[in-house]
UniProtKB/TrEMBL annotation:
InterPro entries per record: 3-OHacyl-CoA_DH, 3-OHacyl-CoA_DH_CS, 3-OHacyl-CoA_DH_NAD-bd, 3HC_DH_C, 6-PGluconate_DH-like_C_sf, 6PGD_dom2, NAD(P)-bd_dom_sf
Gene source species: Caenispirillum salinarum AK4
Name used for this protein in its record: 3-hydroxyacyl-CoA dehydrogenase
Keywords: Oxidoreductase
GO biological process: fatty acid metabolic process
Family: Belongs to the 3-hydroxyacyl-CoA dehydrogenase family.
Annotated site residues (Important for catalytic activity) in this chain: H142
PROSITE patterns, alphabetized: 3HCDH
Domain 3-hydroxyacyl-CoA dehydrogenase C-terminal as annotated: residue spans: 188-280
GO molecular function: NAD+ binding; oxidoreductase activity, acting on the CH-OH group of donors, NAD or NADP as acceptor
Location of the 3-hydroxyacyl-CoA dehydrogenase NAD binding domain: 6-186
Keyword Transcription regulation attributed: no
Any coiled-coil regions, as ranges: none
């Protein structure tokens, strides 16, 4: 596949690594964020991520340099006027995402494909933010954290997504070393419905003093073969995001996805995980 110009909007943990993934695959990639301090810090963070991968023998030093050459940070959306594929990875808020897509729709070329990395919001809802001519080229691409290591991408067509858009994006994901699966456009898609049911039960075990968070993580890694335990993962992605996702799933599917009281207490206390410096295990 041709190395097409790619753009990623949102330079947080997910967006930065999505951009890194496409730059690694040889695509000229640009990245931006609404916050100047995030834009200023992101290249150093990604350089560190690549350096660690080189140290583990995953990449060569030459690949490290080439990837950074393929990636640049820009100040705003005006630079996205020549992109052929744009992934949105901004804050998990419907209004913010719609505003982003509405702005991009007036900037990007007509043939540019749009994708959202939302983990919970229906793709057809987000597609309503762009003109009817763009909707056949709009879908969801749900990557998983840490993106540079996790292979799966859920590809979610909206109501009006053209079949060729789905195939093109699945090919882009495969070419970038990912394994895409096609998922119906429902709240939470597939993996998050399984994952958060699992997380809720893990928190319940701690509430009932069956195990500590460390013991649950050890059990899941050694007994189930998971690469990380549920509490390590919650600390990584943030407890507040987990609470938000579970509330969305609860609204869609009922009380089986009700966030546990202990999770709500952690969030209210500011124990949000790794970025806060305190969480379940941070």
């Amino acid at each position: 596949m041709d190395r097409i110009p790619v753009g990623v909007v949102g330079a947080g943990m997910m967006g930065a690594e999505i951009a890194l993934t496409f730059a690694m695959a040889g695509h000229p990639t640009i990245l931006t964020d609404a916050k100047a301090e995030v834009r200023d810090a992101v290249m150093e963070r990604l350089d560190s991520t690549l350096a660690k991968a080189v140290a583990r023998g995953v990449f060569s030093e030459a690949q490290h340099r080439t990837t950074l050459d393929n990636l640049r940070v820009v100040e705003g959306l005006g630079s996205y006027d020549d992109r052929r594929f744009i992934v949105e990875a901004v804050f998990e808020d419907e209004a913010v995402k719609k505003d982003t897509f509405s702005a991009l729709d007036g900037i990007a070329p007509d043939a540019c494909l749009f994708a959202s990395n939302t983990s919970t919001i229906p793709i057809s809802t987000l597609a309503s933010a762009v003109g009817e001519g763009r909707r056949s080229r709009f879908l969801g691409t749900h990557f998983f954290s840490p993106v540079h290591r996790m292979k799966l991408v859920e590809v979610i067509p909206a109501f009006e997504t053209a079949p060729e858009t789905v195939e093109t994006v699945m090919d882009l994901c495969r070419e970038a070393g990912k394994t895409p699966i096609r998922v119906k456009d429902v709240a939470g898609f597939a993996v998050n419905r399984v994952l958060h049911a699992f997380m809720i039960e893990a928190v319940r075990l701690v509430e009932e003093e069956v195990c500590t968070p460390e013991e649950v993580d050890t059990a899941c890694k050694l007994g189930l073969g998971h690469p990380v335990g549920p509490f390590e993962l919650m600390d990584l992605v943030s407890n507040s995001l987990c609470e938000d996702v579970q509330d969305i799933l609860k609204d869609a599917y009922g009380p089986r996805f009700m966030p546990r009281p202990l999770l709500r207490q952690k969030v209210a206390a500011g124990h949000d995980g790794r970025r806060a410096g305190k969480g379940w295990r941070a």
